[in-house]
Amino acid sequence: MEKELDDRKWTILKAIIKTYLETGEPVGSRTISKFPDLNLSSATIRNEMSDLEELGLILQPHTSSGRIPSDAGYRLYVDRMLAEKDAEVEKMKSAMVQKEAVLIERQDKMELLLKSVVRYLAVNTNYATMITSPQYHRTKLKFIQLSVIDEGQILATVVAEGNVVKNRVIHMEHGLNHDMVLEMNILLNSRLNGLTIEEINLGTIARLKEEAGIHSNLISEVLDAVADAISREEDVEVYTSGATNIFKYPELSSDTEKASGLIGAFEEKHPLLTLLGEKETSGNGIQVTIGRELNNEDMKDCSVVTASYDMGGGIYGKIGIVGPKRMDYDKVVGILKEVTDQLDRIYGKSGSSNTDQIGQGPGDNAY
Amino acid sequence: MEKELDDRKWTILKAIIKTYLETGEPVGSRTISKFPDLNLSSATIRNEMSDLEELGLILQPHTSSGRIPSDAGYRLYVDRMLAEKDAEVEKMKSAMVQKEAVLIERQDKMELLLKSVVRYLAVNTNYATMITSPQYHRTKLKFIQLSVIDEGQILATVVAEGNVVKNRVIHMEHGLNHDMVLEMNILLNSRLNGLTIEEINLGTIARLKEEAGIHSNLISEVLDAVADAISREEDVEVYTSGATNIFKYPELSSDTEKASGLIGAFEEKHPLLTLLGEKETSGNGIQVTIGRELNNEDMKDCSVVTASYDMGGGIYGKIGIVGPKRMDYDKVVGILKEVTDQLDRIYGKSGSSNTDQIGQGPGDNAY
DNA sequence: GTTAGCACTCCAATAAAACGAGTGCTAACA
DNA sequence: TGTTAGCACTCGTTTTATTGGAGTGCTAAC
Q: Which of the listed residues A44, A69, A94 is the one where a domain comes to its end?
């Protein structure tokens, strides 16, 4: 006969997981029997534990040791917790007061802001954290400015909504004069103005080239460079903080091999992006991925909590927090909610008041 | 009577250090007695070792274990090695052929170049490496371009020698019109053009403000922003790679505490800059700092080799390699020489041919 | 269905023993 | 006087044994 997860089993499972989150040690029946809301002897607990194990929610590291949660156990726990949180939020929404933004005073530069956020998270959670710079696919172009540096080189400055600025030096084969540059300026701005970066695709560029007619060759070069500057994928940066926090959790750091692999993963942009990007945003935008669900041998003992922030105008990015499987999901989800809310509020649609100075990114100063 | 370091002692010291560099284990007299250029019994070696210990060049981790080099021992070894290297280079200079630049094909972006260099070093040395983005104090200004974004905001684009580009959005209290901006453009360019960033100090700015007269208030704001954009210290970036290489050296990683501290140091910009900046460039520009010489408790078991690269036009930066005290100094110095030579040659004065696309840095794309 | 009791398991911590690389010293030798 | 063989001794490392204790599963009684 199939066992099933009744109320009492769920209470016991919660007790086991909560205790394990705190201690990191396998938890035994006696410990649970002392739990306030339960009033059962250790023997009874043992029987229930045996059932929970049969259900695949907990497991024994070795015969006759206490139990630890299995990935499935964590999963259940996290899902129920997230559901609860959502309900809570729903209920509070009406009564919500604009809290003072303690964490983030407006900062002039996106880069600094992101770095400060990621550090804030690392310090307050004691886990390893990361954040991507915003991606701008849906951002609208404000204007393009071409300036002559000298014969043979021109500087293209592209400004988009949110004062996102990109620069690119274009090296020309043929000489050029100011009039031609002026003409191109007008052409570019009249045709591209107001389009989103997504919309300025190869087709648009091709059409522009055709229209250009006479200086076709020359314009072609410029357009290619501008298109390139606008749409570069590799612009995405990932900032990390608190990678060394993993040393605080013996199950991650006692094995040097493992620790090295983990820290190594934090050095590389690509694996981090994979980690953040795999799952699409859904629901309230907070995702928890546990252990082997990550499909990453180095991280099989870790969990990752990801969230998205949305600054409006098509500017959005992702945040990730990496810790041991026994991370304090509750706290992490809470803090992430807080932070993304603040980001959304301060810079986002709702806030509306301001977008100046945003998006200066790694290049308020473009060396 | 004072013992002194005769030829034989030096040979033995070299043998000890070389062996220790390879193995990382204290080396005993018997091992050394088997050395090819030496033809002595272990007993004799023991006597000599005793003398070397008295001279402070080697030491015993505990009674009746083999010897390991002391900081002073390393120092002597490194200094003599560097001297030899210098002589070699001097001798080869005349016969020097322009080697093909295998390592570094011209890359469009400084940031990518630096990242690739620092990774190259990490992979090839197996140590942790870092490199600063260039600093531009002696760089000459090419031009400043102010553009109107909308009423209330203007974009200042500053271009310096080597096509170093910086952007800054300036938020204005008072409205402004195109004519005023045009006027300011002319004023700025006529006065600042050709000056180095060092020369555009507060004095120059103050004088400009005075001359401006009428729109003094408005110009003042713009000038402050431009001055700020030009001279920001915080622009210096540090790229690192291979931090996890330290896990390859048990003396650095066996103690979790220590490993954590070291990796942590690599997460922070500031300590790294301190590490790189403390010593001024001198001689051929390669510096070795050993153990406690670093004045950093976390790094007391490390050595750091630093070098400078000079791309001409006042654009220069630093490279640092961090490893255990028993790092392969010889190899590291060699590789560093190669890399800095290539950087100097490709972009530097001698190369002369080109400086385009340089210095796009973290902000060819200034978000 | 719950609980007390008890034998059993297995990890972790501690202690004891065996090992071995390397030294310092002494005495003999060229 | 410098070099070498020999030997007792030191001290960290590794191996093996011993013990302790937390926790289980099962049985029998309530």
A: A69
